[in-house]
Design a protein that fits this description.
Layout (H helix, E strand, L loop, with lengths): L5 E3 L2 E3 L4 H7 L7 E6 L2 E6 L8 H13 L1 H8 L1
Antiparallel strand pairs: 1-2, 3-4
């Protein structure tokens, strides 16, 4: 399918066909990463898994240790 590149603010944009987004698992609100390989622009969905900073991980571990009985009760 031939598409026209349009101006979008200071950038450019292309409308992605529904068949392409459905096939790639992209929906409204999805996060994507773009790259260029061999002169082709690649758009891929990204799964974002938040990671704790080491100092935050220590805090969470200490909180869990202090309140383990509460967490165990909530898990029941």
């Amino acid at each position: 399918m031939v598409q026209k590149v349009i101006k979008y603010g200071n950038s450019m944009a292309v409308v992605l066909p529904k068949e392409a987004t459905t096939s790639a698992g992209i929906e409204v609100g999805s996060l994507v990463v773009t790259s260029v390989e061999g002169g082709r622009v690649i758009v891929q969905p990204v799964d974002v898994v938040p990671k704790l900073l080491p100092e935050d991980e220590k805090f969470v571990d200490s909180l869990y240790a202090k309140r383990r009985d509460v967490f165990d009760a909530l898990a029941e």
